[in-house]
Write a structure and sequence with these properties.
Strand content: 5-15%
Shape: extended
Largest sheet: 4 strands, antiparallel
Number of strands: 6
Radius of gyration: 35 Å
Distance between the termini: 118 Å
Length: 349
C-alpha cells in the first residue's frame, strides 16, 4: 500500500469536516434557500456603457526586446537599438474638413497629454504642426530609460558574484549611477528572505514609464479633448478611431502662428482661401502680419486721398449715388483684397 493510500481516509475526513463547517456557517445566513445578492447583468448607466466600450477596444501591442530587423552592420552584430513603437497618425485632406485633419486608431491603453500641457506647448513654445522635436525628445527619453535599465540589470547581476567588488574601478562608476535607487527605496521596502528587491522594483517602474511612451499620442495642432470617436473602414475592416478635424480650438482662442500664416499666403494660397471662406464668420486672422500692415497703410492712404478730394468737390457731386463714400470704399477694399494683394490693388487703380 502506497503512502497516499494510507493517508486517503484522513484526507477525506478533513474534507468532510471542513465542508460541514462551511455549510453550518452558511446556514446561519439562510443557505441553501437564500440565493445571495442578485446579479445585475446590465446597469442602465452611461458610465457603465462607457466602461464596456473601453473594454471592447483593442490594445496597442508593443514588444520587448524589439523585433530583430537589422538595418546596418552595427545592428547586425550588436542587435537593433531600442525604438519607440508609437501609435501612427493618418493625415488626410478634404474639401469639407480642411487640410490639417488626422485620425488614429482607438486603443484602450493610449495616453494623451493634458489639455493645459498641450496648449502650453503650442502657444508658448510655438510647437504647432512640426512635432519632430517632441518625437525626438520622446525617443531620446525612451532610449535613455532602456540604457539605464540595462545598467540596473548589470548592477543586480554583479551583486550576485561575491568575488566582484562593485566599489572598485570600473564597477564603481556603475554603482554610483545605480545605487542611489537603493538609498531612496530601501527605507520603504523591506528585504524579502534576505534579498533586496529595490532594484527589481525600480526596474519595473522604468519599464512601465518606457512602455507608456510607446502609447503616448501627440495631437498638435489640436487638443486631446477635441477627439471625435467614430468608426472607419480600414483595410476592409471596421475599426474604432479618434478623428481630429476642422479648425483647432487653439487657433480660435489664440492668434495663429505668423510663420504658418506666411506659409499659407506665399506658398499655399489654397489653404488660405479655404480658411477665409470656411471660417469667415469667426473672428480669426488668417493673413500674415506684414500683409495686414500693408493693408492698413493702403487703407489709410486711400482715406487721406478721399478726404483731400472731398475738400475740392462740391456737396452736390459728393451726394451723387454713383460715387463711393469713404466708408463704403474702405469696406470694399477690406472685403475684396485677398490673395494676392498686389493683383487686386493694381486692378482697382
Amino acid at each position: 500500500m502506497s503512502l497516499d493510500e494510507k493517508f486517503a481516509p484522513v484526507r477525506n475526513t478533513i474534507y468532510e469536516v471542513v465542508s460541514n463547517l462551511f455549510k453550518k456557517m452558511a446556514g446561519l445566513f439562510g443557505y441553501p434557500e437564500n440565493p445571495g445578492m442578485p446579479t445585475i447583468y446590465e446597469m442602465p448607466s452611461e458610465l457603465y456603457a462607457r466602461s464596456q466600450f473601453i473594454d471592447s477596444l483593442p490594445k496597442h501591442q508593443t514588444y520587448w526586446p524589439p523585433v530583430q530587423r537589422p538595418e546596418n552592420w552595427f545592428e547586425m552584430i550588436f542587435g537593433p537599438s531600442p525604438k519607440v513603437d508609437t501609435v501612427p497618425r493618418f493625415i488626410y485632406e478634404s474639401k469639407e474638413e480642411g487640410f490639417y485633419n488626422f485620425y488614429i486608431e482607438n486603443y484602450k491603453n493610449i495616453y494623451f497629454l493634458p489639455d493645459w500641457v498641450s496648449e502650453f506647448i503650442q502657444v508658448r513654445l510655438n510647437i504647432c504642426l512640426d512635432i519632430s522635436l517632441l518625437e525626438t525628445f520622446r525617443e531620446v527619453l525612451f532610449i535613455g530609460l532602456m540604457v539605464y535599465s540595462q545598467m540596473l540589470v548589470l548592477r543586480i547581476t554583479i551583486s550576485w558574484f561575491i568575488y566582484i567588488n562593485p566599489f572598485t574601478v570600473p564597477w564603481c562608476y556603475l554603482a554610483a549611477a545605480v545605487d542611489w535607487t537603493e538609498d531612496v527605496l530601501q527605507g520603504i521596502l523591506p528585504a524579502i528572505l534576505g534579498v533586496n528587491i529595490t532594484g527589481t522594483l525600480f526596474l519595473g517602474i522604468i519599464g512601465v514609464i518606457a512602455d507608456s511612451l510607446n502609447h503616448l499620442v501627440f495631437t498638435m495642432p489640436f487638443l486631446p479633448s477635441e477627439a471625435e470617436e467614430t468608426k472607419l473602414l480600414i483595410n476592409q475592416e471596421m475599426k474604432d478611431v479618434l478623428v481630429f478635424h476642422y479648425l483647432p480650438v487653439t487657433w480660435y482662442r489664440y492668434p495663429i502662428p505668423n510663420d504658418l500664416r506666411e506659409f499659407w499666403y506665399y506658398e499655399r494660397p489654397d489653404i488660405l482661401e479655404y480658411m477665409q471662406k470656411a471660417y469667415k464668420d469667426l473672428d480669426v486672422q488668417f493673413l500674415p502680419n506684414n500683409i495686414i500692415q500693408e493693408l492698413n497703410q493702403k487703407s489709410d492712404s486711400i482715406i487721406t486721398k478721399t478726404n483731400n478730394i472731398s475738400d475740392y468737390l462740391s456737396t452736390q457731386i459728393l451726394s451723387n449715388e454713383h460715387l463711393f463714400s469713404s466708408n463704403d470704399f474702405i469696406s470694399y477694399v477690406n472685403e475684396n483684397l485677398h490673395i494676392p494683394f498686389t493683383n487686386h490693388l493694381s486692378n482697382f487703380f
